[in-house]
Amino acid sequence: MSRRRRGGKSAVGGVLAGLLVLGTAACSDYGGDLSGTNVSGGGDGDTLVVSETAGVPSSFLAYGVSRGYFADEGVDLRVSPSSGGATVIPALLSGDIDVAGSNVVSAMIAMGRRMPIQMVAAGTSTADDPAEDFASLVVTEDSPITTPEDLDGTRIAVNSLQNINDVVVNSVLTEAGLSNDDVRFVEMPLPDIPAAIERGDVDAGVLIEPFASIGRSQGLRVLASPYVNTRPGLQIGTYLMTSERVADDPELVAAFRAGVERTARSVAEDPAAFREALPEISDLSPELAGRMNLPVWHGGNDRESIETIHAVMREIGLTDAELDYESAVAD
């Protein structure tokens, strides 16, 4: 089927300029660089260029493409890996990409600052069982930190500041009678966190897969499962499109969402096939792909997760904006 070309770049020009100014003034609010992604332009007609976090999240979409799920829905999906978080929002607003794979926290910070974007489908979620969480709060095996109560006054390594880590670590600390003010977050790349913990540069760290499995294999001990601790089945990732695109081309938005949902069902019904495909569509070794905790995908956004995350964001000062769920989510 043929659909009209994406248009209206000028309509978001002023907002994009404001976002870039915001990025230079307070980019830590977004947990990452706001310079955009390395893509050359969005798609035409039925083609959608989506920029999604490199690794398992982008591999999920690549798997759906390889299985023909998006083509069956009439979507020619082109996947461009990114560093994730808020880095993709300027590229989305400028029209360089059509869909941005981000996280709920980055999305709601941007929406709270009146960026014209909407969540059109769910990205990664976690499991219900803490043992299957794809994020881990870890310490060394011989660390004196044996319970979350012992985190008082410690340094916790995270891969981004003022983002999802603040939200989920807060849930662990709150149950221990502490708050984020009782610890110091130290930002560093995920691959550097295990060694920093072992050296004693930090006392603990938040790792997501595959780095959580790598850390455990190197002797790090899991202190808490922060995603599940915040809410079993917590939705972390989301796919974003501009509000203008959602209004102008609802059929294409629905077709993209249907492709995500079909891919999610396929992974849920046969996770072994997805694990087997990961070494071919990512840099993961077969051994690591076979044993790490996988994220969970559903396709549709989870209102309870989004409302839970937003409430914590307001509590810890990541946003002061109210949540208008019907405007934020285009399901």
TrEMBL record:
Ranges where the SsuA/THI5-like domain occurs: 63-272
Keyword Signal carried by entry: yes
Signal sequence bounds: 1-25
GO CC terms: periplasmic space
UniProt keyword terms in alphabetical order: Signal
A family per Pfam: NMT1
Entries under InterPro entries matching the protein: SsuA/THI5 (IPR015168)
Compartment list: Periplasm
Family: Belongs to the bacterial solute-binding protein SsuA/TauA family.
Entry protein name: SsuA/THI5-like domain-containing protein
Organism: Streptomyces hainanensis
